[in-house]
Amino acid sequence: MILIKIRSTPISVPIQNFLRGASVAVLWLWLTCKPALADLPTVEPPASGGGAGLMGQIKGYLQDAIVLGGLIAAAVAFINVALAAIQTFSEVRNEKATWSKFGAIIVVGVVLLVTVIWLVGKSASIIL
After folding, report:
1. Residue 63 contacts by C-beta under 8 Å, 6 or more apart in sequence?
2. How far is CA 106 from the centre of its chain?
3. CA pair distance 128, 120, nearest whole angstrom
4. How far apart are CA 105 and CA 95, in angstroms?
5. Residue among 31, 35, 59 nearest 47 (CA)
6. pLDDT at residue number 19
7. CA–CA separation, 66 vs 125, rounded Å?
8. Reduced to 3 DSSP states, what percent helix, strand and coil does the chain have, rounded to the nearest 5?
9. How far is it, in rounded angstroms, from Cα 108 to Cα 88?
10. Cβ atoms < 10 Å from Cβ of 67
11. How far apart are CA 113 and CA 98, in angstroms?
12. 105, exposed or middle or buried, with CB in 10 Å at 0-12, 13-18, 19+?
């Protein structure tokens, strides 16, 4: 076996560094090009069923999105009623409004919330 000793000259050090970096880059490129072969989970079908095939799945996901939009509308209505009640209570505490106005806001808000939740439930049963 013949061993060749490379002298460390100012020119050979940059070449060795280049070769080391190139070998790391080639190894990195080789590893990233290999398939991962992961056992990915299957895509869950939409809750509304939707039917068979790609168009059935798209239809099911759209139905689920519409129901989700209704739930978001109910949440927005709840937040608006709560903000109106807090604002009216603050006005009552500062003697700018009466307790009857606060009671009216609460009653109308509760009726609004019950109506919105009822309509979301009805629309979900019709859509699904």
Report:
1. 46, 48, 50, 127, 128
2. 33
3. 12
4. 16
5. 59
6. 83
7. 12
8. 70, 0, 30
9. 13
10. 19
11. 23
12. buried
Q: What pLDDT was estimated at residue 8? A: 56
15 half-sphere exposure, CB direction, 13 A CA radius: 7
Of 49, 85, 86, the C-alpha closest to 67 is 49
Which pTM does this prediction carry? Answer: 0.55
pLDDT at 59: 83
Average pLDDT per block of 10 residues along the chain, 128 residues long = 58 78 87 74 72 79 84 88 92 90 91 86 76
Spatial distance between the Cα atoms of 19 and 17, rounded to a whole number of angstroms: 5
pLDDT score, position 55 = 82
- What DSSP string describes 52-91? SHHHHHHHHHHHHHHHHHHHHHHHHHHHHHHHHHHHHHHH
What confidence score (pLDDT) does residue 112 get? 87
Residue 113's Cβ-count burial label (10 Å; 0-12, 13-18, 19+) is middle
Residues 67, 127: contact at Cβ < 8 Å?
Answer: yes
